[in-house]
Amino acid sequence: MLSSQRGYVKVYCPALKKLVEIPRNPVRIASIAPSITETLIEMGLDRAIVGISTWCKTLKHYGYEEVSDKAIISDYSSVDIDALRRYGIDLVLLQDGYQKSIAGTLQDHDIPFYVIRLPTGLDIVEIPIEIGSVVNAINRGVALSRCVMKYLSMIYNIVTGITVLAVLDLGGITLPGNFSFITRILQHMGFEVVNKEILSHYVWGPEAVDIANELVKESDVIVLEISDIKVSIEKALEVLSPLRNAIHSKKLTIVVLPVLGLSDFGPQIVWRMRVLAQAILKAVVGKRHVMLRTNDMYRKPISSIGYP
C-alpha cells in the first residue's frame, strides 16, 4: 500500500497486475458480484453496501435479506455511471473475469474501483482477506477467512468412490475446468471430478458440448447449476439435451442446483457443498434425480465471530 492524495491510497490489484487508487476508508460501496456482496454481508458490512447488481438480488432467496433495499446500479456486465454518482458511491468492487472490462469504463469516469481475483481452488479462504484489506476491515476479513478454513477442513474427504461431472448453465453448457474453484472444492470433498481433464478455467459453446459428451462416459452423476432460481428436471434435461444420448446410455442421475448454488464462492459455499455432497450420495445410491432448492441451501450462521 502506497501513500497517495489525502483520503486515498494506491494499492496493488493482482487481478489487474497494477496499482489502483481507492479511498482509504470507503463508506458507500457498490458490489456487483454476488460472491463479493455475500462476503461483505458476512463481515458485518451490509450498511456500507449502497449499490448492487441484479444478480446480487438473487442472494435474497438464499437468506440475505440485507440486499432487499439496495439500489440496482448494474446488470452484472455493465454499470450505470449516473446511478453511481447519484448514490455517491466511493468504491466499486468488481470480480475478475467477465467483469474486468468494466474497470476501463470506471477509470474513464474517474470512479474508484478494485477487482477481486477469481479463486482457482481452496484459495477461496483468502478472498475475505483481500476484500477486508480493500474496504479497511482487515481484521474482519481475517476472522471470516479463519472460519471458512475451519469449515473447509470439516468437509475434507467426506465421500469416496463417486465420479462427478460439473456443469453450469450460462445460456448453454459451460464446464468448469481444472483451474476452477468448483472442480477443486469437489475434489477436496473426495469426489473424482472428470472436469480436471480440462486444462483451463472454463470452456463453453460447441467445444464444451463435445468435451462433455466424452466426460459423461466416465461419470456416475452430473451436477448441474441452472440459470434460474426455480429448479426442475424438465429444465435440467433441456439444458443437457446436447448430452441426451450419452446420459441415456449411461443411465446417469442428475443433481440440479439453482443459480449461484455452485458458482458462488462466498463464505456460505462451505454449507452449500455439504448439502450438495448429501444430494449426490442420495442420487447415486437411490439411482434417481435430485433437485436442490434455495431453501435446502439457505444461509446459516457462519460462526459467532466477534468483530473488533
TrEMBL record:
Entry-linked Gene3D superfamilies: Nitrogenase molybdenum iron protein domain (3.40.50.1980)
Keywords annotated in UniProt: Membrane, Transmembrane, Transmembrane helix
- The yes or no answer to whether the keyword Transmembrane helix is present is yes
Please give the superkingdom of this protein's source: Archaea
On whether Transmembrane is a keyword of this UniProt record, the answer is yes
Query: Membrane-spanning regions, if any?
Result: 154-175
What this protein is called in its record is Fe/B12 periplasmic-binding domain-containing protein
